[in-house]
Specification:
α12 packs across α13 (267-287). Helices cover 49% and strands 8% of the residues. The chain is built from 20 helices and nine strands.
Length: 472
């Protein structure tokens, strides 16, 4: 029996019936990813398994470094096969890490390879996978089709021209790719050099000279409208915690002018400016019936020497220990006071915050939207079996699991779509376990509908995307 078999992670008869009969065949709506729209527009072909599988994957780099692998084989200039060998040598040491599951699930689902990856099997796996990469189903678009992906949302700076999205969606595809408005750099007045460089980009993107704070706000609104015209229905913010320190327009204007002059902005001024802008962004999303995503709690770039050498997203981030819940509630309350509370999904990275945030969202639910405020799927360091089960348990115990919008890949890799399968198997096993213990009814009709909705239908209804299937 192979390691990744038909009943992988399914430990009861009901779990197997729910997964094979209701979850496995559902399409994918991946509403948060970091995939490259340009690669999809160009239908990129990949030369080898390293380019497709290891390029940009800081999850793997972290484990390789922990295994004593030199940086040259992670982010450096080592030949592709030597990088792959270094990863293959690391995999046997990754037992009980989610990447051990993901690695073998991806080899099985993409390439039909059942072998356990290690130093001895590396050459065979490399040769068999690379032989298949020339086939049409291994292009960027081919992968989306092969995995039943209906909609992908990328993460995009307000300065992006979205030409790749326009190109993709003008073609007759059985999937759509939509942008997500992610204006994190608009908050960075505490780093005037970086902030002013970004404002210059914003001026070029909007063909507008930004000489005042009011023009800055108008330009951000214009870019929000531009994203909406290209199909966007979501915004996203990567924050240590929600900013909710009330700030007047005049105060924000003064802080903006200070940063534009290149002067140092204090931590308190940064907090107040970011709070003002986050209210503006919330109002924009509410006015257009968008969903706001809040990714909170990451402590980024903690190893300064490596950050200076390699830049961001290289594997040197970790969990922060911030006061999440109070700030989250204050932020939602400020929006709610103005009747401008949009649909919101909050993703947390620290498991200490999971139950508290799950309870907090219940205070802000509002008709007619079902589960208007959502506890997002387990994110980053929590995106593994224990974390997924913990998120599902917290949501079940404090709210309505049946209204959950489900899984996202949150990935830069086109080989990450089996993470939806991984989540679906864990969901079905969790429900099946409850049935087996007599804690849920042995009612496949009820449970099957719940599973199907969580896997796809809830997200389709919540975001209001028109999928290609609906247009046919």
């Amino acid at each position: 029996m192979t390691f990744i078999n038909n009943d992988f992670l399914l430990h009861s008869e009901m779990a197997r019936r729910l997964y094979h009969g209701h979850a496995a065949g559902q399409p994918i709506l991946d509403f948060h990813s970091h995939l490259s729209a340009s690669e999809i527009a160009d239908d990129r072909r990949y030369r080898d398994l390293t380019e497709l599988w290891l390029e940009g994957d800081h999850y793997k780099w972290r484990l390789m470094r922990a295994n004593g692998v030199d940086e040259r084989y992670c982010t450096g200039d080592a030949p592709p096969y030597e990088k792959f060998q270094a990863w293959a040598r690391t995999v046997p040491a990754s037992l009980r890490n989610p990447l051990y599951h993901w690695t073998h699930l991806e080899l099985k689902r993409y390439f039909g390879i059942d072998d356990l990856l290690n130093e001895c099997t590396a050459k065979s796996v490399w040769d068999r996978a690379n032989t298949q990469l020339a086939a049409p189903e291994f292009s960027a678009r081919g992968i989306l089709r092969n995995f039943g992906v209906r909609i992908v949302c990328t993460s995009d700076d307000p300065c992006d021209d979205l030409s790749a999205h326009k190109k993709i969606n003008a073609d007759q595809n059985d999937f759509r790719v939509f942008p997500t408005f992610r204006p994190d750099k608009a908050l960075q007045v505490d780093r005037p050099e970086r902030f002013n460089s970004w404002v210059q980009r914003l001026e070029l993107a909007s063909n507008t000279e930004i000489g005042s704070f009011d023009v800055f706000l108008d330009t951000l609104k214009q870019r929000h409208d531009f994203f909406r015209a290209h199909g966007a229905r979501l915004s996203d913010h990567g924050l240590q915690y929600c900013y909710a320190d009330p700030c007047t327009h005049r105060e924000a204007e003064a802080i903006f002018a200070k940063a534009r002059a290149g002067a140092a902005v204090s931590p308190q001024e940064h907090e107040r400016f970011a709070s003002y802008l986050m209210l503006v962004f919330g109002q924009l999303d509410a006015a257009r019936n968008w969903t706001k995503q809040l990714h909170v709690g990451a402590l980024r770039d903690v190893r300064s020497r490596k950050f200076s050498e390699l830049g961001p997203d290289s594997g040197f981030d970790c969990m922060g220990d911030f006061r999440q819940v109070e700030n989250f509630c204050r932020y939602l309350d400020l929006l709610d006071r103005e009747n401008a509370l949009p649909k919101i999904i909050v993703y947390n990275i620290n498991p200490a915050d999971t139950y508290a945030l799950a309870a907090a969202i219940g205070s802000f639910q509002d008709a007619p939207v079902r589960a208007k405020i959502q506890l997002g799927t387990a994110w980053w360091f929590l995106d593994q079996k224990d974390g997924i089960e913990s998120q599902l348990n917290a949501l079940s115990n404090t709210g309505l699991l049946a209204r959950f919008v489900g899984m996202v890949t949150d990935s830069r890799s086109f080989l990450s779509f089996p993470r939806h399968e991984y989540f679906r198997r864990i969901l079905c096993d969790l429900l099946g376990r409850d049935v087996e213990r007599g804690e849920l009814p042995d009612d496949e009709r009820l449970l099957g509908a719940t599973v199907r909705n969580i896997c796809y239908k809830n997200a389709e209804d919540y975001f209001g995307f028109e999928s290609p299937a609906a247009q046919q």
